[in-house]
Specification:
homotetramer, 126 residues, mainly alpha, two-stranded antiparallel ribbon, 5 helices, DNA-binding
Chain lengths: 126, 126, 126, 126
DNA sequence: GTGGTCTAGACCACC
DNA sequence: GTGGTCTAGACCACG
């Protein structure tokens, strides 16, 4: 369920965070589900436990998961956060970057929308 | 024309690269135009000349600009490159990340498309 | 394995790039091998870490090496890229220059071919 | 007869030197022929007279041309120099670089020899 | 004037 | 430990 590419320029801990969010969006992980323990995930993806720990801390900090003492880490029932203006602004910045890059690749607005829909459906459709 | 946020996690040289591409897309900079000299831009945005140089070299390497010895750096007449499969795959990865993040913020597919169009029009419309 | 001539007109970072490619061709460095760390090579050849870094980044950009976060820089398993028309044209230009220079030194076509074979065998033969 | 590419990374003065040597090799320019005056060449190729001057000085220094006071600059009758060990070593270095690059493009020794012969014949054949 | 290279030395993120 | 980014300031080649 979690695939890490150590060659990627995206930090491993971010890859973990993102893939957990992706799994939630795809319905593979559901609210209430337990995440693998740090040790277990660490041996599964051959990563340093500190790296997993950092990812889990970040997930908890942003309200995706919650940790229950002695039980483990779980997807929160109310994992979806509302509009966070600051975060939304960040996302818009990245989106702007991406749009400029796609424009530079020769894509029209319509083609960009198609790309977005295609990726969205791949995520939601499962 | 170029605004740098030194507190951003995005490296300064990348901000420069991106903003120059953005300016080209907006029509603020045109093929044939000369970029500010390294020293001039360096004093304009209060960054080190080496940092500007790195950005300019990357722009040249990716075919956006060309350097004429002793004259300066210019937007290439044929600055737009075609589709590059590897690059496109990278872009899709980032777009996927963004979509998951937007989904997490509670946006529907339609809202995402609207967001994309809004940003696109801000870029193209000027 | 890497010898730098600081008095050469060829930039140090280019000498590094070239010698690593040379070492690969000679079989001294093999796909999968780790390059010396920036700091280590820096102290070995008495050059600034930034200079090494520039060479390593160029090697990565051209597909000779890959960087694994926190681990180091490695020769790629699939390091050899195919023909690139633009690059080949550049090479022909330089070769033309060299031929004119050799002609100017009084070498015949046959002597040039012998020269080429001699150097080639020194590279391949080890 | 002389074509300058101001975009090239090769300095303009070197392009001039090389093209004059190329013209001699091709038989377009012959020993005894007069080179265009600095002013004339300067306006022909739209380059700074200082640049032309630098090229002419270098040509004279290396024994390709000679200047006759009040008359102009001429191709020397004995323009071909004998073996200069230092220069030959330099040439070998560049040739080695080129061979590594061609190897990296996937060319065999035979293909390299063919390339060399092809370029040589283009130069000599005219 | 232009850009290109290099050093010295610092700070950071990641693993 | 690894590489990535940045600053400060120097020197050089080129036109």
């Amino acid at each position: 369920m979690i695939n890490i590419d150590p060659r990627s320029s995206q930090p491993i801990y971010e890859q973990i965070i993102f893939q957990i969010k992706e799994n939630i969006m795809k319905g593979i992980m559901m609210p209430g589900d337990q995440l693998p323990s740090i040790r277990k995930l660490s041996s599964m993806i051959l990563a340093n436990p500190n790296t997993i720990s950092k990812a889990y801390q970040e997930l908890e900090r942003t309200g995706v998961t919650e940790t229950i003492r002695g039980k483990g880490t779980f997807i929160r029932e109310d994992y979806k956060i509302g509009a966070d203006d600051e975060k939304m602004e960040e996302i818009r910045e990245v989106l702007k970057n991406i749009i400029v890059e796609m424009h530079y690749m020769g894509l029209s607005k319509e083609e960009m929308n198609k790309e977005l829909e295609k990726i969205y459906d791949e995520l939601e459709g499962e």
